[in-house]
Design brief:
It is a single chain. The protein folds into three domains: 30 residues, no CATH class; 67 residues; 35 residues, no CATH class. A two-stranded antiparallel ribbon has the order 1-2. α3 crosses α4 and α3 crosses α5. It starts with 10 loop residues before the first helix and ends in a 7-residue tail after the last strand. By secondary structure, the protein is mainly α. It contains six helices and two strands, in the order ααααααββ. β1 and β2 form a beta hairpin.
Length: 147
């Protein structure tokens, strides 16, 4: 039986507080379940994406599946491994493949090289003063990329 509590709360907390109990009785509306043809179409798209990725990145099917899962879920993915095993190639290939299938503009790919002297503005970007216009110009960092 589903619990009417918020994450991190016990049943006793929500029942003791009428406001929380009232808020949690009405769960957010979910979209209707996908039809079988929609599931088949999504499965086909994911299979094609994995097959194309596997043409470039060989022997790492599980990693590719996890990356595509993170992409589909809209999450963030941190790819860690020893040097020379295709992390950058994986990200670049993924960006190229979904740009092609997306039909819109290109998916922007940027790489962040983590070093001991890395500073926050190396990731977020920096304001640079333009002496001619006497204004600051923001140069975005790699965090503003899609991949």
């Amino acid at each position: 039986m589903p619990s009417n509590t918020l994450p991190g709360e016990s049943d006793q907390t929500s029942l003791a507080n009428p406001e929380i109990a009232a808020e949690t009785k009405e769960l957010p509306h979910r979209d209707p379940p996908l039809t079988e043809s929609e599931v088949d179409a999504a499965h086909g798209l994911v299979s094609r994406l994995l097959d194309r990725l596997e043409r470039v990145i060989r022997g790492k099917r599980r990693v590719l599946e996890l990356v595509v899962t993170g992409l589909i879920c809209g999450g963030h993915i941190l790819i860690e491994d020893v040097p020379g095993l295709g992390k950058t190639t994986l990200a670049k290939t993924l960006a190229q493949l979904i740009s092609r299938d997306r039909g819109g503009g290109p998916v922007v790919f940027k790489r962040i090289q983590f070093t001991p002297d890395l500073l926050p503005y190396d990731i977020t970007g920096v304001d640079i003063y333009n002496t001619q216009s006497q204004r600051f110009h923001f140069t975005p960092g790699p965090v503003f990329a899609n991949i």
